[in-house]
Amino acid sequence: GAVVSQHPSRVICKSGTSVKIECRSLDFQATTMFWYRQFPKQSLMLMATSNEGSKATYEQGVEKDKFLINHASLTLSTLTVTSAHPEDSSFYICSASLIQGGSYEQYFGPGTRLTVT
Amino acid sequence: LAKTTQPISMDSYEGQEVNITCSHNNIATNDYITWYQQFPSQGPRFIIQGYKTKVTNEVASLFIPADRKSSTLSLPRVSLSDTAVYYCLVGGGYGGATNKLIFGTGTLLAVQP
Fold first, then answer.
1. Is A77 exposed, middle or buried (0-12, 13-18, 19+ CB in 10 A)?
2. Is B93 in Cβ contact with A105 (below 8 Å)?
3. What pLDDT is recorded for position B2?
4. In the predicted model, is pLDDT for residue B62 greater than 60?
Protein backbone atom coordinates (compact mmCIF):
# COMPACT_ATOMS: atom_id res chain seq x y z
CA GLY A 1 0.00 0.00 0.00
CA ALA A 2 0.83 3.74 0.07
CA VAL A 3 2.07 3.99 -3.50
CA VAL A 4 2.65 7.33 -5.20
CA SER A 5 3.22 7.59 -8.94
CA GLN A 6 4.53 10.38 -11.12
CA HIS A 7 4.15 10.96 -14.83
CA PRO A 8 6.20 11.39 -16.88
CA SER A 9 9.35 9.83 -15.44
CA ARG A 10 11.50 12.01 -17.67
CA VAL A 11 10.81 14.83 -20.09
CA ILE A 12 12.90 16.95 -22.41
CA CYS A 13 11.48 20.25 -23.57
CA LYS A 14 12.63 23.34 -25.37
CA SER A 15 13.26 26.60 -23.61
CA GLY A 16 10.11 28.71 -23.37
CA THR A 17 7.65 25.85 -23.38
CA SER A 18 5.58 24.58 -20.44
CA VAL A 19 5.68 21.15 -18.90
CA LYS A 20 3.10 19.45 -16.70
CA ILE A 21 4.02 16.77 -14.16
CA GLU A 22 1.35 14.60 -12.51
CA CYS A 23 1.48 13.12 -9.04
CA ARG A 24 -1.03 10.47 -7.99
CA SER A 25 -1.63 8.57 -4.79
CA LEU A 26 -2.71 5.18 -6.09
CA ASP A 27 -4.21 3.44 -3.09
CA PHE A 28 -5.04 6.16 -0.61
CA GLN A 29 -6.48 9.62 -0.41
CA ALA A 30 -3.82 12.15 0.49
CA THR A 31 -4.64 14.92 2.91
CA THR A 32 -1.79 16.94 1.48
CA MET A 33 0.72 16.64 -1.34
CA PHE A 34 4.14 18.24 -1.53
CA TRP A 35 6.46 19.15 -4.40
CA TYR A 36 10.23 19.04 -4.10
CA ARG A 37 13.13 19.81 -6.42
CA GLN A 38 16.52 18.15 -6.24
CA PHE A 39 19.67 19.22 -8.05
CA PRO A 40 22.57 16.77 -8.56
CA LYS A 41 24.34 15.76 -5.36
CA GLN A 42 22.08 17.97 -3.28
CA SER A 43 19.25 17.34 -0.86
CA LEU A 44 15.56 17.71 -1.64
CA MET A 45 14.26 21.26 -1.50
CA LEU A 46 10.60 21.76 -0.64
CA MET A 47 8.90 23.95 -3.23
CA ALA A 48 5.27 23.99 -2.17
CA THR A 49 2.50 22.37 -0.17
CA SER A 50 -0.61 21.40 -2.08
CA ASN A 51 -4.01 20.93 -0.44
CA GLU A 52 -7.02 19.66 -2.33
CA GLY A 53 -9.47 22.41 -3.17
CA SER A 54 -7.30 25.30 -2.04
CA LYS A 55 -4.36 27.32 -3.25
CA ALA A 56 -0.91 25.89 -2.81
CA THR A 57 1.45 27.34 -0.25
CA TYR A 58 4.85 28.13 -1.72
CA GLU A 59 8.16 28.19 0.09
CA GLN A 60 10.17 31.37 0.18
CA GLY A 61 11.97 32.03 -3.08
CA VAL A 62 9.74 29.79 -5.20
CA GLU A 63 7.87 31.68 -7.92
CA LYS A 64 4.21 30.72 -7.79
CA ASP A 65 3.53 32.09 -11.27
CA LYS A 66 6.28 29.93 -12.73
CA PHE A 67 5.47 26.73 -10.87
CA LEU A 68 1.71 26.31 -11.09
CA ILE A 69 0.19 23.73 -8.79
CA ASN A 70 -3.29 22.30 -9.16
CA HIS A 71 -4.65 19.85 -6.62
CA ALA A 72 -7.80 18.68 -8.39
CA SER A 73 -8.67 15.75 -6.15
CA LEU A 74 -7.51 13.84 -3.10
CA THR A 75 -5.43 11.59 -5.34
CA LEU A 76 -4.02 13.97 -7.96
CA SER A 77 -1.78 17.01 -7.90
CA THR A 78 -0.09 18.58 -10.92
CA LEU A 79 2.94 20.82 -11.21
CA THR A 80 3.29 22.91 -14.35
CA VAL A 81 6.63 24.52 -15.05
CA THR A 82 5.75 27.49 -17.22
CA SER A 83 8.12 29.06 -19.74
CA ALA A 84 10.82 26.61 -18.78
CA HIS A 85 14.48 27.61 -18.99
CA PRO A 86 17.64 25.51 -18.76
CA GLU A 87 18.09 26.47 -15.10
CA ASP A 88 14.76 24.73 -14.37
CA SER A 89 16.33 21.43 -15.35
CA SER A 90 16.15 19.31 -12.25
CA PHE A 91 14.66 16.24 -10.60
CA TYR A 92 11.13 16.98 -9.40
CA ILE A 93 9.66 14.75 -6.70
CA CYS A 94 6.20 14.76 -5.17
CA SER A 95 5.00 13.22 -1.96
CA ALA A 96 1.58 12.46 -0.54
CA SER A 97 0.71 12.63 3.12
CA LEU A 98 -1.29 9.92 4.89
CA ILE A 99 -2.50 10.04 8.45
CA GLN A 100 -1.38 6.92 10.32
CA GLY A 101 -2.17 6.81 14.00
CA GLY A 102 -1.04 10.06 15.53
CA SER A 103 1.22 11.19 12.75
CA TYR A 104 1.45 11.99 9.10
CA GLU A 105 3.50 9.65 6.97
CA GLN A 106 4.79 10.93 3.65
CA TYR A 107 5.23 8.66 0.69
CA PHE A 108 7.27 9.81 -2.25
CA GLY A 109 6.86 9.37 -5.96
CA PRO A 110 9.68 8.05 -8.15
CA GLY A 111 10.53 11.52 -9.43
CA THR A 112 10.50 13.25 -12.83
CA ARG A 113 13.70 14.23 -14.56
CA LEU A 114 13.17 17.50 -16.45
CA THR A 115 15.73 18.63 -19.01
CA VAL A 116 15.23 21.99 -20.69
CA THR A 117 17.26 22.54 -23.84
CA LEU B 1 10.76 23.47 12.03
CA ALA B 2 13.39 21.47 13.85
CA LYS B 3 16.75 21.37 12.13
CA THR B 4 18.56 18.08 11.93
CA THR B 5 22.27 17.36 11.89
CA GLN B 6 23.75 14.09 10.71
CA PRO B 7 27.15 12.95 9.43
CA ILE B 8 27.76 13.74 5.77
CA SER B 9 29.06 10.26 5.03
CA MET B 10 29.79 6.87 6.56
CA ASP B 11 31.63 3.80 5.35
CA SER B 12 30.87 0.20 6.24
CA TYR B 13 31.44 -3.36 5.08
CA GLU B 14 28.95 -5.99 4.09
CA GLY B 15 27.46 -7.88 7.03
CA GLN B 16 28.17 -5.17 9.59
CA GLU B 17 25.61 -3.31 11.65
CA VAL B 18 25.46 0.39 10.84
CA ASN B 19 24.23 3.06 13.20
CA ILE B 20 23.52 6.56 11.92
CA THR B 21 22.84 9.20 14.52
CA CYS B 22 20.88 12.38 13.96
CA SER B 23 20.69 15.41 16.25
CA HIS B 24 17.50 17.44 16.52
CA ASN B 25 17.85 19.64 19.56
CA ASN B 26 14.81 21.79 18.80
CA ILE B 27 12.32 18.99 18.28
CA ALA B 28 8.77 20.00 19.19
CA THR B 29 6.33 18.04 21.31
CA ASN B 30 4.22 17.06 18.31
CA ASP B 31 7.15 16.11 16.07
CA TYR B 32 7.78 12.57 14.97
CA ILE B 33 11.16 11.33 13.72
CA THR B 34 11.23 9.72 10.31
CA TRP B 35 14.05 8.19 8.31
CA TYR B 36 14.13 7.87 4.54
CA GLN B 37 16.48 6.13 2.12
CA GLN B 38 17.23 7.53 -1.32
CA PHE B 39 19.01 5.94 -4.27
CA PRO B 40 20.25 8.10 -7.15
CA SER B 41 17.48 9.33 -9.46
CA GLN B 42 14.74 7.85 -7.27
CA GLY B 43 12.31 9.29 -4.77
CA PRO B 44 13.01 8.78 -1.07
CA ARG B 45 11.74 5.55 0.43
CA PHE B 46 10.18 5.47 3.90
CA ILE B 47 12.24 3.35 6.30
CA ILE B 48 10.92 3.89 9.79
CA GLN B 49 9.16 6.39 12.01
CA GLY B 50 9.01 6.83 15.77
CA TYR B 51 8.10 9.19 18.56
CA LYS B 52 10.01 7.85 21.55
CA THR B 53 11.93 4.80 22.85
CA LYS B 54 12.53 2.08 20.29
CA VAL B 55 10.78 1.12 17.10
CA THR B 56 11.66 -1.91 15.00
CA ASN B 57 10.41 -3.13 11.66
CA GLU B 58 11.61 -5.65 9.13
CA VAL B 59 14.43 -3.48 7.80
CA ALA B 60 15.66 -1.27 10.64
CA SER B 61 15.45 -0.15 14.23
CA LEU B 62 15.08 3.36 15.51
CA PHE B 63 16.36 4.33 18.95
CA ILE B 64 15.11 7.54 20.53
CA PRO B 65 16.34 8.64 23.99
CA ALA B 66 14.00 10.09 26.56
CA ASP B 67 14.86 13.72 25.75
CA ARG B 68 14.20 13.06 22.01
CA LYS B 69 17.00 15.44 21.03
CA SER B 70 18.65 12.76 18.93
CA SER B 71 17.83 9.48 17.26
CA THR B 72 19.79 6.56 15.86
CA LEU B 73 18.88 4.51 12.83
CA SER B 74 20.27 1.00 13.07
CA LEU B 75 20.65 -1.14 9.95
CA PRO B 76 21.52 -4.76 10.75
CA ARG B 77 23.92 -6.65 8.52
CA VAL B 78 24.13 -4.20 5.63
CA SER B 79 24.68 -5.30 2.07
CA LEU B 80 26.03 -3.53 -1.00
CA SER B 81 22.46 -2.61 -1.97
CA ASP B 82 22.15 -0.51 1.18
CA THR B 83 24.54 2.04 -0.30
CA ALA B 84 22.35 5.15 -0.43
CA VAL B 85 21.68 8.50 1.18
CA TYR B 86 19.78 8.33 4.46
CA TYR B 87 17.75 11.31 5.64
CA CYS B 88 16.54 12.03 9.16
CA LEU B 89 13.54 14.33 9.39
CA VAL B 90 11.42 15.62 12.24
CA GLY B 91 7.87 16.85 12.02
CA GLY B 92 4.61 15.44 10.83
CA GLY B 93 2.93 15.06 14.16
CA TYR B 94 -0.84 15.19 13.96
CA GLY B 95 -2.01 18.32 15.65
CA GLY B 96 1.24 20.11 14.99
CA ALA B 97 1.49 23.39 13.15
CA THR B 98 2.32 21.74 9.88
CA ASN B 99 2.96 18.35 8.40
CA LYS B 100 5.61 19.44 5.91
CA LEU B 101 9.08 17.94 6.10
CA ILE B 102 12.32 19.82 5.53
CA PHE B 103 15.23 17.73 4.34
CA GLY B 104 18.72 18.19 5.71
CA THR B 105 21.95 17.13 4.02
CA GLY B 106 21.49 13.42 4.66
CA THR B 107 24.17 10.76 5.26
CA LEU B 108 25.76 8.99 2.32
CA LEU B 109 26.35 5.41 3.43
CA ALA B 110 28.88 3.54 1.33
CA VAL B 111 28.94 -0.23 1.85
CA GLN B 112 32.00 -2.05 0.58
CA PRO B 113 32.52 -5.76 -0.05
1. buried
2. no
3. 62
4. yes
